[in-house]
Design goal:
450 residues, mainly alpha, 72% helix, globular, membrane, transmembrane, cell membrane, transmembrane helix, Chromate efflux transporter
């Protein structure tokens, strides 16, 4: 919640190492998928610390929403870059992913080496309803900020119908929303101004380090030379490891195929992890046989309940593939899995850094230009409908685990309701809610009630 008294002065400047510690903390607590992670960043960076204003935050988020890749990780990279240049962006983006990589390597090893543990099953039983409530809360939070008039409400509603009832692909929804915003920005510009033209959110938290009228930093100004430099460096960071894999193992080796496959997957993640999961499933399970269908489902559960982007499920896929294929021999199964998990994480996330560092200066040059911001404002409205659909997707699978024809899980429903009350009514911290629900699920599973 915003403070009762709005501060009148901007916070003190933040050093690189102060920001570094925050990004590290964020990587450890970024549960709840992209919606929950964006919600945490908004609370910390806009409301509490005031490192960036509401409008500048939403402008950066709009850009990240239209990119392939994990939007929450890209948003952290963008804000880190805006504050502390390239090293700030790299630190924010890497620290957003690194804790999740280590955690998933450890959990993947426990999963495949020791089988299904009742302890883990109990924790998951409580966490899944909590995640449903967190996503619903995020839809409410973003919607309350972005849907400032009936036009934007209509776009959000149409977006929900398009994805829920018509099953339209997310890129199509984004493209249509951008077109509506572009045309609407010319016909009725007052309907598509960032923040809805009311300014309530902009004023409620006080001045920010990067405020609405803060000039674009020198390093964030667009230059063709800078764009070309980033493109060349990014290409080399992809070509060199791919070339080494080809030279060391050949094209058909599992490592090389993983690098190529996840390079393609990284460019297809429009709309977040759920948009690309069918592609990953078809490739990793059906085509390459790196893991079995039931393992893919369990990996998704791990991805949902660990910090970091949901697309980090690719680390699980890589670990199981490297482990099961015995790439380093029977005596080094763990190291084969860890190497594969690290490899696929590199090739999956590299494009995200390039998109932010190369495209950020162009985005910064447009944050006061309505012809650019109107399409992005419409896209944000459309995303609210998509997030609501995601909440219903979670709710369906949690409350009817065997489908509508099966039994309604009323205990999960009560956990979800309790989590929602804690979030909406008592404004509890997301991490506290997840921890409490996990312990409740463990107690229920280990007890005699289920």
């Amino acid at each position: 919640m915003p403070p009762l008294e709005t501060p009148q002065s901007a916070p003190l400047p933040v050093s690189f190492w102060q920001a570094f510690l925050f990004w590290f903390k964020l990587g450890l607590i970024s549960f709840g998928g992209p919606a929950g992670q964006i919600s945490i960043m908004h609370q910390e960076l806009v409301e509490r610390r005031r490192w960036i204003s509401e409008r500048r935050f939403l402008h950066a988020l709009n850009y990240c929403m239209v990119l392939p890749g994990p939007e929450a990780q890209q948003l952290a990279t963008y804000i880190g870059w805006l504050m502390h240049k390239t090293r700030g962006g790299i630190a924010a983006g890497v620290l957003f992913v690194l804790p999740s990589l280590f955690i998933l390597i450890g959990l993947s090893w426990v999963y495949i080496a020791f089988g299904n543990l009742p302890l883990v099953a109990g924790l998951f039983y409580g966490i899944k309803p909590a995640v449903t409530a967190i996503v619903l809360q995020a839809a409410h939070r973003i919607g309350s900020r972005a849907l400032k008039n009936n036009t934007l409400w209509a776009i959000a509603t149409a977006s929900f119908v398009a994805i829920f009832a018509l099953k339209l692909p997310f890129p199509v929804i984004v493209a249509v929303a951008a077109l509506v915003g572009y045309i609407g920005g010319r016909i009725a510009p007052e309907q598509f101004r960032a923040g809805g033209g009311h300014g309530k959110a902009d004023l409620s938290f006080g001045p920010a380090l990067i405020d609405d009228d803060t000039p674009t930093p020198e390093h964030a100004r667009f230059r063709w030379a800078g764009l070309i430099k980033i493109a060349i460096v990014g290409l080399l960071l992809w070509l060199i490891p791919m070339g080494l894999l080809l030279a060391s193992y050949g094209w058909e080796h599992t490592f090389t195929q993983m690098a190529w496959f996840f390079s393609k997957a990284a460019l297809l993640t429009f709309g977040g992890a759920y948009a690309v999961l069918p592609y990953v499933y078809q490739g990793a399970v059906d085509h390459y046989g790196w893991l079995m269908p039931v393992q893919m489902i369990d990996g998704l559960a791990l991805g949902e309940t660990t910090p970091g982007p949901l697309i980090m499920v690719v680390a699980f896929v890589g670990f199981i593939g490297g482990y099961s294929k015995e790439l380093f021999g029977l005596d080094s199964l763990f190291w084969a899995g860890a190497a594969a998990a690290t490899l696929v994480t590199w090739f999956t996330f590299l494009p995200s850094f390039i998109f932010i560092l190369a495209g950020g200066p162009m985005v910064e040059s447009t944050h006061n230009d309505l012809k650019f911001t109107a399409p992005l404002t419409a896209i944000t409205a459309a995303v609210v409908g998509v997030i609501l659909n995601l909440a219903l997707f979670f709710g369906y699978h949690v409350l009817w685990p065997t489908g509508f024809a099966g039994t309604f899980d009323w205990i999960s429903a009560l956990i979800a309701l309790a989590a929602a009350v804690a979030l909406f009514r008592f404004k509890r911290n997301v991490i506290h809610v997840i921890a409490a629900c996990a312990l409740l699920g463990l107690a229920l599973k280990m007890g005699s009630f289920i």
